[in-house]
Amino acid sequence: xxxxLPNWLRFLRGVVDSADLPLNVSREILQEARAIRxxxxxxxxxxxxxxxxxxxxxxxxxxxxxxxxxxxxxxxxHTDFENGDRIQELxxxxxxxxxxxxxxxxxxxxxxxxEGQKEIYYVTAENRIAAANAPQLEAFKAKxxxxxxxxxxxxxxxxxxxxxxxxxxxxxxxxxxxxxxxDDEKAAKETSRKQAExxxxxxxxxxxxxxxxxxxxxRLSKRLTESACCLVSDEWGMGVxxxxxxxxxxxxxxxxxxxxxxxxxxxxxxxxxxxxxxxxKDPKLAEYTAMLYDEALLTAQLPLEDPLAFAKRVSRLMADxxxxxx
Length: 326
Description:
Layout: H1 27-32, H2 34-57, H3 59-79, H4 84-88, E1 94-95, H5 106-112, E2 120-124, H6 128-132, H7 138-143, E3 147-150, H8 155-161, E4 164-165, E5 168-172, H9 183-211, E6 215-220, E7 229-232, H10 240-249, E8 258-262, H11 267-278, H12 283-299, H13 307-325
Parallel strand pairs: 2-3, 2-5, 6-8
Antiparallel strand pairs: 1-3, 4-5, 7-8
Helix pairs in contact: 2-3, 3-8, 9-11
């Protein structure tokens, strides 16, 4: 009954006993009855109070509730602005700091933030395994920053409304540029950063030319510490998870051009830099650039453009490596 409960509380079942409703009840009368509006407001308040109390006094039971009905509750952030702040307090997410199956609230996350962390970080993915293995997490793990896992399909829409909590901005680590270093750390890294940009300038330009329209940009990464490369969206672009959802609804949705980020400290990038410096037209450069791009697609759990070509390329490079090792 939408007159009594908003759609985001559709999991509730119950009976309203009221002596204030008109005897001759019709849908039109219900819509106009002031008592109905008051009942709805009080019902929503009571439900939110009950859930907040459960979360505080019986967290294990609340975890069970969240597993069953959390996705519906999240919809309230988008449709019920009056209760948005209260719904925020009820949200729960898995994170890079917790074992599988455990969830944290935003308040608990903020309480664990180390000194110097200014934003709340999250990554979107299809499931926990994909989120935990995302290469974009590497710099955040190195800094000891916790990252929330947005793995529910509704989370991508939710992030448009959940932009901040307690004056702390929520930031998708798979979008835009990242800046998690302190002023002192930036100053210490400035020389090496400029040197890396100078050393890799020609390689970056060559790889962008090879990939062409497949990527929006090729650049050095601030978020990678172990992986050779990754794909990220620009600040206002469509995320990987959202693109998959859109393609599921409409297969003709055009692919989003993403940014290929390179780890300048990775041995593979250093080797490619050497190949380019020796011969900018070396066919190996195009071969390995295509390989890196396919690797980035795989780690982002995006489909390969040509799986057969990828398989042949892997076999060819493996054969060359084995022959050269003899």
